[in-house]
Amino acid sequence: MRRSPSMQDRRWAARALADIRNPPVPNSRPPQFTPPPLNATNFFPQPRMKPQEIQRTLLGVLLTMFLAALDQTIVAPALPTIARDLHEFDSVSWVVTAYLLSATASTPILGKLSDLYGRKRLLIGSVAVFILGSLGCALAPTMFALICGRAVQGAGGGALISIANTIVADV
Question: What is the pLDDT averaged over residues 44-53?
């Protein structure tokens, strides 16, 4: 019984035929290594971090991620009490929606800005925006002020999550 040649057999035959037609030159040199062209990522080589620096960096980044994640989950159980104190049950859903909308909008924008202007600077700025939003929420006398504070807080929180993930990937 004769079997039909498989794809691997055909490739092997094609390579063998190419070697017969174009034999290698005996004293030819292998191609020289040429470094890749310089661009923004390899122009300034990054120094290696010491293990202690890596641990401190990761601890700070993980704390900021914890801060943003905790804020997303801790508000929901407190919303009925907050709405009762502010006497506005109609706009309770906007407290969560404002945070999510601004976090969703700020995540890609500030992620790209961190590529351009540096991650450390934008992470510190995002923490500052997040804290200002938290302060605005804490001092909010009306539901509208609370919603505005949550929107500011969401802008900082969305940036915290995206920049922190990028820093973890860089380290």
Answer: 75
